[in-house]
Structure formats: structure tokens, C-alpha cells
Amino acid sequence: MIGVAAAVVVAAAGSTLIYWNLPQTKVERKLDKAAEYMEAMDYVQAQTAYEEALEIDQTSIRAYRGLADDYIAQNNQAQAEETLKQGYEVTGSEILLQNYCATILNGVVEEINAAAADISTIGRCLDVLEQMPENTDALSLLKSCGDLILVQQEKSTVLLDGLDGTGSFDAYEEIMNRLFALAESSETDYSAIIEKYAVMNADEIYLSLAHADAYREILTKAGACGVAAADELLACLDKQAQMSAYFAPMFADFEAENYEAAKSFIITEEYEAIRDAFINETMEYWYGNTYIPVTKEAIVFLQTENGWMFSFVEDDTVAPPTGTIRVLGQKMRDLGVQRSAIEYVPAYDPEQYYPHTEYEIVYWNTMVSGIATDNTNVVSRMNYRFAEKIYKTNGMEANMIYDWGGSNEKRQKE
After folding, report:
1. DSSP state of 152
2. At 232, is the secondary structure helix, strand, or coil?
3. pTM for the complete prediction?
4. Which residues contact 86 (CB under 8 A, 6 or more apart)?
5. What confidence tens digit (pLDDT) does each residue in 309-323 have?
6. Are 142 and 189 in contact (CB under 8 A)?
7. Which DSSP symbol is given to 201?
8. Is the peptide bond before 249 cis (omega within 30 degrees of 0)?
9. What is the Cα–Cα distance from 357 to 397, expressed in whole angstroms?
10. Range 145-151 average pLDDT
11. What are the sequence ranges of the domains in the chain?
């Protein structure tokens, strides 16, 4: 009988040993130990215990959740999100997916509250929506981010490269493409959000012309999603492209210091039509008055009482000044004849502004030269004026050549 009893004891001990070494049992022991470390706020030891648990069982939902909580306690938001995402991909657990989305959105809220949100914050909202398209919290935060991140003080510069050439347009374009993909694949109506992101809720939207074609494509897709306001911005871009192409030859001449080319340019019907459209306030989509700049670097869309318009950006704190052409769009008659004028500002370094040189070519009525053949009207003597203006810290020096190109270039009755 004694031998039998001993056998039973040995068998019991063996089963205990087997149970103790089962993978699930080892995992539970690691997780319990990790929980103890978490309670003691020993987050480094807890992280090790959770990682060891996952080495034993890669499908442990509890280990993924615990490790994510540990990373949050260590202020490692990104690693917490990555852990939950990996756990969902391995296990397919809806619990981990919900935890993943909740962790992301909690991080987004923290960034917003800390005034630390940027364009990457928008991408994190989309991370959630791409997993859970109907997530109302993510949709709400995405709407809020459209105003908080894309617009500051009623201006949006997300489409504008910095003076050092860097910018966030590529990130913006990626966000828009993800939004369009969500709108196409989801039953949720994304048109209001797409409008908020494609046509920012701002009085001024700055755009580097290097991105004009890409932004045109975004606006075209937005229009297809029902964003009516996109059409006005597209009309502005069409007008900008037309004007940029028209002035391109003059930029080439001015940059080659061929200022005499302006003589024929400023008396063409097309140039005079542009001038008169500004004078008569009939110019469509292109905004300006007096001396209207044309540049190659950037434009700004302006929300006016007449809808969206644009102007070329001349501000050297916004875009690098590589050359500016200015159209005289002001009513300025000399003995009844409207002047036609153009100015050119060569590229300059804003940090070393002085001496600053500008050039002006004017076609104007210089004098009354006689009586017309019908003895009723005087004859206008039309000539060119060329001026080189050099601005210095103590004033401006002007070098003038009157009647440049010869006197009486054109005869015109009043």
C-alpha cells in the first residue's frame, strides 16, 4: 500500500510540473508580474515582463493591452499605438482595434489641448477612419482639425513653401488623397469635410505656384464630390495660368536687362485691356489696384464680397523675391490720354535691401504740339519715359531718360 501511495504523489507532482510549464501558465505568470510592476510604477520592468509574455504567446490580447498601457505611462504614445495596431493585425481582435482607435484619438485630443497639433495630427484621425469609417469621434475631430490646423488668424499657409523651400504641401496632398479614398469607399458623406480641407475656411489662402497643378487636381476631385466652392478657386487658377503665361516673355526680357522690349509690350491691345480692366474694376478673379504685382513664386486667394479672387504675392517675408512685374492699373490721364506703364523689380536679398533698384517704363502724353487738321482738336505728342529708381537708406535717386525711343512715337487726337 505504501508503494501505491508514493506513486500517486509522484503522479500529482508530475501533473503540477506540467501545468506550471504550460505556455499559457507561463504567460499568466508574466502578466501577473507585469501588473505588479505597473502597480508599483516600475514601468521598465513591466515592459520587459509584457514583452516576455508576447515572446511566449504572440496572440495574447491581455499582453498587447498591458504593454500599450505601459507605453502610455512612459509617455510613449507612438509606441503604444504601434503595439495595439500590431496586436490587432496578429489577433484580429476587435477589442484591440477599439483600443488602438481610442488611444489615437486620446492622443489627438491631448495635442489639440496642448496647442501642439499639426498636419500629422490630421493623418492620425484618418488612421482611425480607415479602420473604422463610421467612428463619430474621429469624424468630429477631423472637422475640428480642419480649422485648427489649416487656418491660423483667418489665413492658411499650408499650401505655401517656406522661404527656405520647405513646406507641408506633400503632407497635405497625401491627406486629401486619403480623404478622397475614404469618400469613395465609405457610405459616410465626406463632402462637408472635403470642402473644409480643399477650400479652407480662411479669408486668405496662400499657394506656392510650384504646387498649382497638384492643387488644381485636388480642387477638381473636390468639385466631383459636390464642393461647389472649388469652381471659383479653379477659375482663379485658370486666370493665374493665363496671366503667368502672358507675362513670361517680359520676365525673360527684363531678367536679360532688355528693358526696351517693354516699349512695344505696354501699348498692345492685350496689355491695355488688362490695365483698363483694373481701372474700370471689371477684372475677373484677379484682384488689385494701382500697381498690380505679377510674380512667379506664389499667389494668395482672397475671399471677397464678390467671391474668391487672387493676387500675386509680392511680400518678401512670404515668398522669395526673384523678380516682380507691376501693371499700372490706376486712372492717370495726361491731357486726356491714359498712361500705359509697367515696372520691374529685379531679384534682391531681403536681408540686404539697400540699395534697392526698380525700373519704370511709361508711355504718356508729354505735351500739346499743335492743332489738328480739322482745327478742332489738339494733337497729343506720345513719348516714352524710362526711369531707374535706386532706393537708399537716406532717400531715393532717380535716373530719368525722357522721350526714350524718340519723340512723337504715336499721334492721337483727344
Report:
1. B
2. helix
3. 0.85
4. 64
5. 999 999 999 999 999
6. no
7. S
8. no
9. 9
10. 91
11. 153-226, 239-413
